Structure of DNA topoisomerase (ATP-hydrolyzing):
Amino acid sequence: MSGGNEAEYLVEELADAKLPPKAEVLAILESLTLSFLGSLARGEDPSLHLTSRSGKNVVRDDLGRVHLGKTKTVKKLFSRGGTERFVKIWQVLELVQRLLQEDKMATQREAYYCLVNHFKDQAEFNSTLQDVVALTGCARTALGICASSSGAVAGLLTWQDEGGEPIDCSTGTSGKRIPGVIEGVRFECLGARYILIVEKDAVFTYLCGQRIWDTLPCVVVTGCGYPPLSVRATVKKLSHQFSLPVLGLFDYNPHGLRILLTYKF
């Protein structure tokens, strides 16, 4: 028990967020709503059971990849200090339901501005969205919310989203913008032997101008500093799909090391 607000208990194994179809996500939201109303009707304190995001609930698989375990955190509506957090979670759930019912997708920034009067800043919204992911077990894109794209890719690669034209990443001198949602994007490797991650956008632009992939057969990726989820997901997908080793150019200081570890884990 922590501060009288929430309790943690172990379920089992791993709790990675999934990408269920829209109908299944809506069914999860309906189940949460019915459970909430049922608790009120019985005179009970409504509670939400979220996968714990604490460091104690982090586990590694046999390949060294980091996952959340299935330790649960219980948040109660009428617990000390819990009411505001509880209400904010439901505000995000309501937005998610609206996006799914209207078959729309919003960036995380756009979603924040839909609820800007209810959150003090983007960081508070982001934290609450993570709670919603932990509550539903659904990835952000399954909830109708995608990462803002602030990364680029260049080199021996083409990609094509559903219904779109193939995009050749070897053309131009500034790379191609990585989409905020990569589910459904089809990549084709054109002979690359490496993935080269570049921390700084200026270095990325220089390497693109030099067409480094003509000398080193590679795909060059930048997250323009700290990479958003879409950039990290793209690197992971390319590495696994085409069995490409990942190399990186980062500043030789703690800040650069932290960015490197963001990609690694």
The two ends are 29 Å apart (CA to CA).
